[in-house]
Amino acid sequence: MTPDVDAAMGRALALAAAAVEWGDTPIGAVVLGPDGTVLAEAANEREKQGDPTAHAEVLALRAAARVHGDGWRLTGTTLVVTLEPCTMCAGASVLARVDRIVYGADDPKAGAAGSLWDVVRDRRLNHRPQVTGGVRAEESATLLRAFFRRQRGL
């Protein structure tokens, strides 16, 4: 793991923790440019915005597209996210031409980067990002478990 990716995952974890403040599931995402600089970052804002598509990955990809310089194509970028992307976020990453997805915890209930589905490696699609999972997975999983325990009053 490169220092850029480790630092980006640290930032994504901090963003994820902040999402709890407005009642959102703690997921954070950072988009790195081809040179490793941060292009954009976001936390889940579904509750904050009242928008079912306001996942951290989608918000970060949208913001990165505004600054990357190639329109909507995020060629050469890396999406770093605390939880394995769902089908929507995996699909958005493929359609945005993200080169690499790095995620923390696996999501056996909704993951689309290999756990439940494998959207990002589907050979029928015209783009397939490289995927690395399990980066600082326990830190992400700990945030998620604590959040859902509080939600369920346990």
Automatic annotation (TrEMBL):
Keyword Zinc: yes
Active-site residues annotated for this sequence: 57
Superkingdom as given in the UniProt entry: Bacteria
Alphabetical list of Pfam families matching this protein: dCMP_cyt_deam_1
Catalysis performed (reactions): adenosine(34) in tRNA + H2O + H(+) = inosine(34) in tRNA + NH4(+)
GO annotation terms (biological process): tRNA wobble adenosine to inosine editing
Alphabetized CDD domains for the sequence: nucleoside_deaminase
EC annotation from Swiss-Prot or TrEMBL: 3.5.4.33
Subunit comment: Homodimer.
PANTHER family: CYTOSINE DEAMINASE FAMILY MEMBER (PTHR11079), TRNA-SPECIFIC ADENOSINE DEAMINASE (PTHR11079:SF202)
Protein name (database record): tRNA-specific adenosine deaminase
Provenance organism: Geodermatophilus obscurus (strain ATCC 25078 / DSM 43160 / JCM 3152 / CCUG 61914 / KCC A-0152 / KCTC 9177 / NBRC 13315 / NRRL B-3577 / G-20)
Gene name per UniProt: tadA
